[in-house]
Structures are given as C-alpha cells and as structure tokens.
Design brief:
Layout (H helix, E strand, L loop, with lengths): L1 H17 L13 E9 L6 E5 L8 E5 L3 E2 L3 E4 L1 E9 L4 H4 L4 E7 L3 E8 L10 E8 L21
C-alpha cells in the first residue's frame, strides 16, 4: 500500500512540473516564392519533378500524369536546382534525367515549371519551359500561362 502511494505521489509531482509555463516559439519562415509543376510531355508517361538542392521549402511532384499539374508550393528563394525524371520503380528508368536546370527565384513571385516535349527534329530531348510572374494574390487557371496565353493541351 505504501508503494502505491509513493507511485501516486511521484506521478502527481511529474504532472505538476509538466504543466509549467513553456515559452512559445515562432518558426522562422524564409522569404518564399510560389512554384508549381505541369507535365505537358505526352510521350514519357508520368514524371517526378523536384528541387534537388535542399529539402525544406522545396516543391516535389511524384507520379505527375500527362496534362496534370500541382498546386503552388512555397519555395525558398535564390538559386534553385530542379530535375525531372520519368516515374518508375525500375532504377534504370527513373535514373534517366529528362531535364536538369537551375533558376533564380525571387520572393513574392509565382513560377510555373512546365515540362514540355519539343521534338520537332529527330533526336532532340524534352526540355523544361518556365514562366515567372509577380504574385497577384489570385490563382491562375491550369491551362493559362501567366502572360494570358492559353496552353495547348491537345498534345
């Protein structure tokens, strides 16, 4: 009986100490741009698109199907490194880099990374096309570029 009282007394002391006032911390969020991905490559299937230089505040799109896009992701500003890969569980396929590029992002802008097939001449690879615009506070349609021109989704 004494042991149970001692355990209860210790548990009560721990509970009282746990209810003490803690200082609230505020996370530091770096300046960000908004980045989204669109897959407009009709001959590769689904794509993985991602920033390669850091993990925090970096956009990722896994298994992004043709004619689909992501929401805008908050992304750290500065020089950023992006890569595009085919989606696969086979390491030989997913190791093929479709595009590899660096871009400088500025705070308060929206950036759309479009994977677009441009194979007018035999043997050319797909390339990434991108648009950048100042943040307007409104969302844009998936089939409309920031300059107002409509994207051709017919392949």
């Amino acid at each position: 009986m004494r042991l149970s009282r001692l355990v209860m007394l210790c548990a009560g002391a721990v509970a009282v100490n746990a209810c003490g006032s803690d200082k609230v911390t505020t996370p530091s969020i770096p300046p960000v741009a908004q980045v989204r991905f669109i897959n407009a490559v009709n001959d590769t299937g689904a794509l993985d698109m991602r920033a390669m230089d850091q993990i925090a505040f970096s956009p990722v799109a896994n298994n992004l199907a043709y004619r689909s896009g992501t929401v805008y992701f908050p992304t750290s500003v500065g020089s950023r490194h992006f890569r595009v890969f085919p989606t696969s569980t086979n390491i030989a396929i997913t190791s093929q880099i479709i595009d590899d590029e660096s871009v400088t992002l500025t705070a308060g802008t929206r950036d759309t990374r479009d994977a677009v097939a441009d194979r007018k001449r035999a043997g050319e690879d797909s390339q990434i096309r991108h648009h950048q615009r100042r943040h307007s506070g409104t969302s844009s349609r998936l089939d409309q570029r920031p300059d107002g021109e409509r994207l051709d989704w017919c392949g």
